[in-house]
Structure formats: C-alpha cells, structure tokens
Design a protein that fits this description.
Shape: globular
Number of helices: 6
Number of strands: 2
Order of helices and strands: HHHHEEHH
CATH class: Mainly Alpha
Strand order of the largest sheet: 1-2
CATH superfamily: Winged helix-like DNA-binding domain superfamily/Winged helix DNA-binding domain
Largest sheet: 2 strands, antiparallel
Helix content: 55-70%
CATH topology: Arc Repressor Mutant, subunit A
Radius of gyration: 17 Å
Amino acid sequence: MFNTLAYYSSVLYRDFTAYTSEKLEKLGLHFGLLFFLIYVGKHPGATPSDLTQTLRLDWGHSQRCITKLVDSGFLTKEKVGRRYQLHLTEKGQEAFEVSHQVFFDWDDQRLTALSEEERRTLFALLQKVARRQESSPHSAAECPRSAGQTPAQD
C-alpha cells in the first residue's frame, strides 16, 4: 500500500488541500471554490454551463458555488441575451491571483529536494499517467497551468 501511486497521491492531495485552505481562508474562501475562481479568471465571460461542463461538476453543486461566490463579492453574474456571463470582481481578481499562485508556491516548497532535471522527469511521467485518464468521466478538470510556466506566461 505505501509504495503505490494511490498512497502518494492521497498524501500529496491532503497536504495541498491543507496548504491551499490556509491561504484561501484569509480571503474568506475554501478549497472547493478554488477551481471556480481559476476558471472564470482564465475565461472571463464564461457561462455557468461552460464552467460546469469543463470542470465536470454536478449542475446543482456548480450553481450553489457560483451563487456563493456572487453573494460573497468574488464574481458577477450578468445576463447577456439568453445567457449569464461570469466575471471576477476586484475582490475576485485578488483571490484569483492568490489561487493561481498557490500551485507554484506549494510546488516550490515540496520539490526542493529534486533537481531541475528530476522535476522535468517527474512532470513528464505524471503527464503520461494523466493522459490515460483524460477520457475518464472522473478525470481532473482543466489544470491551472502547465508545469514550468510562470504566472507571466499565462
């Protein structure tokens, strides 16, 4: 059990969730809203339907999270024609930047024991494993950024 990808994935996920929750808590957010902010930040004007389909979420859950983000002042939801569009508010933009950066800060802290070449190898292998999951109904939604990119490259 301890020498399995599932074990290490679980350990790393719990660590990342705790780390991210600590950073987001200061903004009045929780981990479950992280990908909503990132998606809208990267796709201004996205519709709730776009977001729900891309993140592969349950419609009701998605709508509750969007409503919470709107009510908390992180998003606006405006009707344009027959559709609603989502945009970050100023508060949402700040939260987006923190949410986006947390991935790289966590990586920097957790991967200090690896050389640059080892990091590239690790990411290449993980991408190979993840590609096999792309057609799975339970695959991860859009990643916030490819490995090795800096915030300025987005």
